[in-house]
Amino acid sequence: MSNIRRSVGPCACATLALLSAIAFTACRSTRPAGATTVPSAAPTAGPAAPTTRPVPATRAGLPPVPVVAGAPIVPKVQYPAENQLITSRDSNFVLGSVGSGDVRLAINGVPVTVAPNGAFIAWLVNPPAAAARYELEATRGADTVRRTVRVRYPVRLSLPATGARLVDSASVSPGPRVLALPDEWIRVSVRAAANAHVTVALADGTRRPMVAVARVQQSALLAVGAQRDPIAPEPVVSGDDAGITFATDVRASQLAVAAHVVAARGLDTTRLAVPVVQVLAANERRLGVLRSTNAVGSDTDRVVNARTVPDGTYKWLLLPGTVLEITGRQNGSTRVRLDGALDVWVANEDIVALPDGSAMPRRVTGGLRVTPASEWVDVAIPMGERPAFLVEPDGRTMVLTLYGVQMNPEISPIFGNDTLIRRISWDQVGSDRTRVTFTLSQRAYGWLSLWDESRRALVLRIRRAPVVYAGMPLTGLTIAVDPGHPPAGATGPTGLYEGDAVLPVGTLLVELLRARGANAVLTRETLAPVGLTERAVASRRMNAHAFVSVHLNALPDGVNPFTANGTSTLFYHQSSEALARPVQRALMARFGLRDLGVHYQNLAVARPSWFPAVLTEGLFVMMPEQEAAMRNPAFLRRYAEAIVEGLEQYFLELGASNSAPSGSSSGTPSGTP
């Protein structure tokens, strides 16, 4: 999730994953969706005293937007800000307030609906680059107030179809300081004029043609359409900018010495150097040790995020101190090898190279030791050195994958007469990959991955589900309530900041939870910023049984807010989906907005695994009527009540699924101790 804070724009937890479901939204409309001319107020002889009165709600489930009439006309744009960089291709939203609901508004000549409180949001065609500005004209009777907001667009070097300019020198890839294996294919690309002939000239005198990426894509479309010969012709582009991307793949060993991209058109030729690629020697092995730059919490909380692509979505939560082979580096990320079949990426600052000649640790397990405790069961797997691993819960099973590990459990003692772990099985699924499957007597609830230095063992601590009383499902449970932001966060048309708006929801939620017998604790109690890691660490230290982060949503540039807003609930670990669904149902029942669903998302605050964790995006603060609802005390309570209902339903379902088939009567425990 984005950590950018703007006047509006993406909430720090904006649901970018949802955009794949709503990306069909038309971005080429010449008229803002939902924009109509606002009926004019009756002319007045002079300024009237501001009045406030309720009007019927325009959307089911939301309270009426208060009417503000006769207030001074003060056009204010929350987004985009003055000189804001607009990244959308052709259309974008503008939002703000004119100060009074009885005002007509036009932006760049297009009528825009004004809410009863003076707030507005418009979906407009981007102004031309030569006049990159939004001209606001707010009118009431004989009074007119104008406001201009200038914006800018990303600078793109124009490559005309004629003339000596052939390539964009800043577009050459790979970038500098790339590290790769000798036989690895490296993509060489450049943006050049479509009618240029582009090649990469290698140091040995050979040349490889570079093909337009658009041509390959068009060939794929022709093949899908059953074209007999689907190879598309070279693209023809004319006009002020005929620039397209050309690319080819070259072995890293061939880029270890000087190479050049050469573009030619008629008598004009441009030659650009390709940055030299550093190649790992075939007979050498480079090792590194993972480290955590985060000093918050204990080593239980400090993990290194490993990703499938450089700076992408994190998937593996690795222990600092793990030694891995380094196999590449690019764009601020280092590639490391988990085992013979899998390489992943970590941030450069999260790994330190070991001295040349360091040997890779051997990781061979001994027997598994199972030790029950009152709230969890520890499974210790001795192997001498920290491994890379992945924990995947699925219903009543939990799968532990160990990378670079060989299994050799001659004997596995199981202490106590414990019923949580019913069965343990293991498979050597590769020469250096092991899978351990735990069959549980109840739905997977929570876990921690620890390193026991005294025993040189990885410890998987599997948490027992709490006892749940059917008539009082939250009694005795600890619930972490996290009012989202600051830092970052979104801001609505009248200036309501997300971090300020959700704090009272969190306070009400704690009040309601305590009234139901829960021990509810806020991760922040003031408007001061609290880091994402600090919120998660505090929740684990309080031994929370569930974690709920309360947010409001917003959208990035280029997405139509009139068709893409609604309510969603998000999770990271699959085991938390069971909590997300009842929370989402309760929010939908009270808000009546578009159902954007329950989604996995790469969320830092939902990453802890010791408890189910979800993040609610109840409303879009960028929408005038939804922002107004968040200023209504009764609606704030409704938001909190929905979360309480979702929590109660989750724990009731958890207790029922973990109890005996006969169930339990009201007021008696329905979970297993």
Mean pLDDT: 89
CATH superfamily membership of the largest domain, which one? Zn-dependent exopeptidases
Distance between the termini: 37 Å
Strand content: 25-35%
Low-confidence stretches: 1-10, 12-17, 19-59, 660-673
CATH architecture of the largest domain: 3-Layer(aba) Sandwich
Number of helices: 8
The name CATH uses for the topology of the largest domain is Aminopeptidase
Structural class: alpha+beta
Strand arrangement, major sheet = 36-35-37-40-38-39
Number of strands: 40
Query: Structurally, how many domains make up the residues?
Result: 5
Largest sheet: 6 strands, mixed
Tell the overall outline: flat
Helix content: 10-25%
Quickly name the level 1 CATH class of the largest domain. Alpha Beta
Description:
The chain is α+β, with helices and mostly antiparallel strands and 673 residues long. Helices cover 14% and strands 34% of the residues. It is built from eight helices and 40 strands. Strand 35, helix 3 and strand 36 form a beta-alpha-beta unit. It starts with 18 loop residues before the first helix and ends in a 15-residue tail after the last helix.
